[in-house]
Specification:
With 127 residues, the protein is mainly α. The protein is built from 6 helices and no strands. The protein has helices at residues 26-36, 46-53, 55-75, 78-99, 103-113, 118-125.
Length: 127
């Protein structure tokens, strides 16, 4: 019996339009779409509507989605928790875009914390 060849990895090339890259994470791609909706028509885009209402409204929606995710986490309803988590991440990315925070900055902070205990990391913030 012949051995199967390993599938080749997708190339790590960026598209010229900057919209997406094969090696980007879905959250990076979603952020680009969200950020592109700044100044779009609020009548045709929910994201544009959020931007038109300002950071406070975006933050409020993030809080609402976080509470809904918390409730589903306590209830233990996995499918609903998945949906609410996706809503929460969307609103978090929208808040980042509204404030000019790039996902790469958050990923870098997470990488910096990688391998640190939560207790040690929190203690380092108090200094």
């Amino acid at each position: 019996m012949a051995k199967k060849k390993k599938a080749k990895k997708a190339p790590k090339t960026k598209r010229q339009d900057g919209i997406a890259s094969v090696d980007e994470h879905v959250l990076d791609r979603l952020y680009v779409v969200i950020d592109s909706r700044k100044g779009a028509d609020p009548e045709t885009s929910y994201t544009a509507r959020l931007f038109s209402r300002g950071r406070q409204q975006i933050a409020k929606k993030l809080g609402e989605e976080a509470v809904e995710a918390l409730i589903e986490g306590i209830r233990g309803d996995k499918p609903k928790l998945v949906g609410e988590s996706a809503d929460m991440l969307y609103h978090l990315l929208t808040l980042w875009a509204a404030t000019g925070v790039k996902p790469a900055a958050v990923w870098a902070e997470l990488a910096r914390r990688e391998g640190l205990s939560g207790i040690a990391e929190k203690a380092s913030r108090k200094k």
